Amino acid sequence: MRMHRKDNLDARLAACADIMTGADLTEKNMKKAAEMKAYLDYAQLFGNVAPVHMEVGCGKGGFVTGMAQLHTNVNFIAVEKVSNVIITACEGAKALGLKNVHFINCPAEVLPRYIRPASIARVYLNFSDPLPKLGYAAQRLTNPRFLNMYAAMLCRGGEIWQKTDNEEFFDYSLQSYSECGFKVEEVCRDLAAHPFEGNVITEHERKFMEEGRKIFRAVVRVNV
Ligand SMILES: C[S@@+](CC[C@H](N)C(=O)[O-])C[C@H]1O[C@@H](n2cnc3c(N)ncnc32)[C@H](O)[C@@H]1O
């Protein structure tokens, strides 16, 4: 289903330029685009050298803004490919006056352009599209091509925290983590039955909880 383009989207994106790196998609080949390095300078963006956590596929930003409010000693980067969606997240962060969040409006494939190797302490993958059809496996955000990309961006001992409602996708992800040399440290197959303190509920998580669906969660560590 095609989403209605938000009113004045370009002007609204421009108004968020202070907290968002916009998608420069002049180079259509994503591999080439990823090679055109334009690393973000975290010290300049955030004014400090606190650890950086990154959410990939942040949607409307409920999770990252919630986390940023709870963890003021962490800097957050939130990535979303759809401008029409990330604008809600950016405007939400601006309304809250958050200084420890920066957004990147780009497909995850292009992230190596902006993210320096070994500079991220934790990656969050929340309710990533499961893309069940076999032909789309390479687009899944836990496909080995993305896991290898995160591994290069993660600091020594860095982690990925994943939540999903889709058991098949979860099992696929666990297999991908092992294939790519991540150490699987936590696996939870029913988050409601085994809650953990500090869980920030995402937009999709709330919807799935209301539908009574099980939420799956994993924590994996880059192998050091
Ligand atoms: C199902 S939504 C989940 C949104 C949010 N994380 C939540 O839990 O409510 C998945 C989001 O990931 C984004 N996404 C999917 N593939 C992506 C990619 N390759 N790069 C960046 N964002 C992506 C989609 O546009 C969508 O907003």
Summarize the structure.
The protein is built from eight helices and eight strands; from the N terminus they run αβααβαβαββαβαβαβ.
CATH structural fold name: Rossmann fold
- The span between the termini is 43 Å
Work out the helix count. Answer: 8
Roughly what fraction of the amino acids lie in strands?
Answer: 15-25%
Order of helices and strands: HEHHEHEHEEHEHEHE
Averaged pLDDT? 96
Q: Any idea what the CATH superfamily is called? A: Vaccinia Virus protein VP39
Largest sheet: 8 strands, mixed
Helix content: 25-40%
Placed side by side, the strands forming the largest sheet appear as: 1-4-3-2-5-6-8-7
Query: What CATH architecture label applies?
Result: 3-Layer(aba) Sandwich
Write structural notes for this entry.
By secondary structure, this protein is of the alpha/beta class. It has one domain (9-221): Vaccinia Virus protein VP39 (Rossmann fold). It has 8 helices and 8 strands; from the N terminus they run αβααβαβαββαβαβαβ. The chain has helices spanning 9-15, 30-35, 42-46, 62-70, 83-95, 144-153, 167-179, 203-210, and strands at 20-21, 52-56, 75-79, 101-104, 120-126, 154-164, 183-188, 216-221. The protein has an 8-stranded mixed β-sheet with strand order 1-4-3-2-5-6-8-7, with helices on both faces. The mean pLDDT is 96. The structure holds S-adenosylmethionine (SAM).
Protein traits:
224 residues; alpha/beta; Rossmann fold; eight-stranded mixed beta sheet; 8 helices; 8 strands; globular; binds S-adenosylmethionine
